[in-house]
Here is the input.
Amino acid sequence: MPQGRSPRTEIASSAADPGTGRIDSLIELRDALRRFAAERDWQQFHTPKNLAIALSVEASELLEHFQWLSDAESQSLDATQLARVRDEIADVLLYLVLLADRLDVDLLAAARDKLALNAKKYPADKSRGSSRKYTDL
Amino acid sequence: MPQGRSPRTEIASSAADPGTGRIDSLIELRDALRRFAAERDWQQFHTPKNLAIALSVEASELLEHFQWLSDAESQSLDATQLARVRDEIADVLLYLVLLADRLDVDLLAAARDKLALNAKKYPADKSRGSSRKYTDL
Amino acid sequence: MPQGRSPRTEIASSAADPGTGRIDSLIELRDALRRFAAERDWQQFHTPKNLAIALSVEASELLEHFQWLSDAESQSLDATQLARVRDEIADVLLYLVLLADRLDVDLLAAARDKLALNAKKYPADKSRGSSRKYTDL
Amino acid sequence: MPQGRSPRTEIASSAADPGTGRIDSLIELRDALRRFAAERDWQQFHTPKNLAIALSVEASELLEHFQWLSDAESQSLDATQLARVRDEIADVLLYLVLLADRLDVDLLAAARDKLALNAKKYPADKSRGSSRKYTDL
Here is the structure.
């Protein structure tokens, strides 16, 4: 953040901030993350292997918030817990977008394909109400 | 996939598939996942705690593909490896969207907020070329 | 395992196996793993970073067996489930011993120290019946 | 630790500590953990599912220390890094012992069986110098 700017200016320029900018889609999020990494010369650390590690670590930090909660408690988080969980969810998404970008994977296309595959593996009539893996259906 | 269908027909029917439908945004992906779970009566398993576990497990399955690769090898996956990795990336996204939906978290808003926070924690001029945690900067 | 062998014979032949040998302690397990890796020239892959990844991946494979189970179900695994879980538990221990060996960490000494630390962080009278983190006590 | 005690005294008093006691084997560690949990009435949280989550979370905290390190850097941790890593290694072992105890799994017997299985899956002559999964050998 350039020195000498007033907080107000920062907020106003936030929309135009090259580091964040408008983010209303996965594409815009990807572009913001590209700029963020480039400005810090962090691409050197962002090998697919390292990003996959970071993603896994963040997913575990998210899980940590639930580890001693009952299923019922996990459904009624208080505001503090929810804010922490939201923060970890964001971290998972950031690394997922960075990794997908690094591998030239279109996230939504990959999700579409996987959902279509799952629809075949888990036919609604055979898997209704069952948590068994499809190989056990 | 039923035999004898032309690829064109498949695409057309895929777009009309009530289980998947058009998915061009995170919102549409969320809606498709809602339908998918409802048709299978799977919402009962989708407590936030269970979804956080599933997300973490999928992130590890993704990481598994990289575990014995060098950083260089992780940057030049062959087509088979990349297809498997893409599949795992999709799984992570699916569970992330399910979990965020379950907790009423707006994924893109959460990512925006986190990126803005990171911009403050890691000023470009102090963190350039360094992988140290912000507490060590 | 060839049929018709008595358990006694199996134990005897197991003891003579150069790849495994007698394993009645963590030290003997460490030594067996050293031989196993050396015979396959696998030490080159066993950097601390890679072993930490492998450990994390195996811990997630273990967790996967519980992900859709209720707490009650997780306490009454059938024989098949238990055999799979036991197998994953073993994998976690193998990688933990390999990693500790690679870093010259004495596993039991580290566990002793951590348990002593936990005894201070979680005084019995303050933490009885509570799953809160010590910082919240 | 009270100041002014000699290391020798600390060791002696540690041996008499009802919470930890002598721990020179996995069995003694298991017994110490049983006492530790019982004194805090924590067994109620220690379902196999919750312990598997905790184990996975701790394995990720261990991995976190390596996530941005090169393989070479991961082999030359400084004293501070090593102390943190040793601490996380201990956490993984503690939860592994708790989980195995909860499921009546003998850790060393499970490790022996798995090592024998691995010896068959990865014959030394076929797997020498290769990190490929046995299914790809």
About this structure: The radius of gyration of chain A is 19 Å.
